[in-house]
Amino acid sequence: MTVVVAGRVLADGTASGSVLALSAPLSLWGGVDAATGVIVDPRHPEAGTSLAGRILALPAARGSSSSSSVLAELLRAGVGPLGIVLGEPDGILAIGAVVARELYGADCPVVLVAGPDYARVAAAPRVAIAAGGLIELPEAGADQLI
Fold first, then answer.
1. Is the pTM of this model over 0.85?
2. What CATH number is associated with residue 109?
3. Is 145 within the bounds of a domain?
């Protein structure tokens, strides 16, 4: 059984994969190694974790407008997230995803999901993001892969 959550599209696209739920906001500029996709901010709780090939559940972005260029570079290099689900709106990450799609053909949807629905997505082992911002996740306790 699956549950569908409707999010607000900031950058459209499709993606599915395992969820990497960060416990704290992150700035991609200085917080992530653009060559490897690994969180390098030593103060971040998930320092040392790779964003590559995962759906990133990010409670909020932090910091520089340069995060858009870092996201585009991560996606160009193939070490970025498959998609991003945000708990708070962030136009900077959306710009990076749009630029990466236009320049490099790299698809990384960015979807805003607030409140309890964000918590459900962040707690899911896997999700599928559909065009239009619909996010499919397994019902709590279900052993289904999406």
1. yes
2. 3.50.30.10
3. no
